[in-house]
Amino acid sequence: MLIGADGVHSVTRQLIDPAAPEPRYTGQHIVYGFTDKTPVEVPADTYQMIRGEKGFFGITGAPAGGLWWFARVSGPELTSAQAAAVTTAQWRDQLIAVFEADRTPAAAVVAATTEPIVGTGNYDVPTVPTWHNGRMTIAGDAAHAASPAAAQGASMAIEDAVVLAKCLRDIADPATAFDTYERHRREPGAGGAAGAGQRGDEPAAYPGAPRPAVQQRELAPRPPHRLGFPHLTMH
Ligand SMILES: Cc1cc2nc3c(=O)[nH]c(=O)nc-3n(C[C@H](O)[C@H](O)[C@H](O)COP(=O)(O)OP(=O)(O)OC[C@H]3O[C@@H](n4cnc5c(N)ncnc54)[C@H](O)[C@@H]3O)c2cc1C
Prior knowledge:
single chain, about 240 residues, FAD/NAD(P)-binding domain, three-stranded mixed beta sheet, about 25% helix, binds flavin-adenine dinucleotide
């Protein structure tokens, strides 16, 4: 059995269906940095999300001091090699130009960053027509990659893993198990969460929330499974 949890550029998706859609460039770069300086105080348990005129910015305090930040800004599609070739100084100058007109701390945080700044292109895969074939299936971003703007991809990947595990646990025939998994995890609306959050539009809510986890009546009753944490059980 092959479960492809191999991300937005999944090879397994193409193995299952050679006609599967390619990842779609969203027109945005995601850029990350850390500074040991604190032009603004942000506690370690807080994430400040800033919507600027021309870009989106997020900052959180690092537990040992300093600030972690990310920026989401418009830009042309870059190959991996092109993205890797952009220097810290180039990212810094580009981001300062994007954020300096805003009355927010974004530009000051970027300007205070002397540690490496890295950036990548941002892709999504709103719909994948075929989720399984024979003894192969996909999960997480491989099946429905949401833009980071949707802030849902990791949650969906974890939910996929739990539902798929339950289906394989309780349904002997892999094709039936995969059908059941797909029925519960494919978003009902076109694109669902994976289609949301384009070009900096934050979804007001979670538009295509996947259906609830597999209904108990479809699966064999089992006692709760202890996960190794004293207060956490999976039903
Ligand atoms: C800037 C940013 C912010 C985000 N914010 C949020 C958020 O707030 N909330 C949220 O829920 N989600 C968020 N996401 C999305 C989230 O990170 C992804 O949806 C999630 O990581 C998908 O998990 P995955 O396991 O499906 O894929 P991935 O995390 O991409 O993991 C796939 C793994 O497969 C490996 N792999 C790929 N190909 C192969 C191969 N051929 N052989 C072996 N291994 C392979 C890769 O190296 C990788 O380790 C954000 C993403 C970004 C970029």
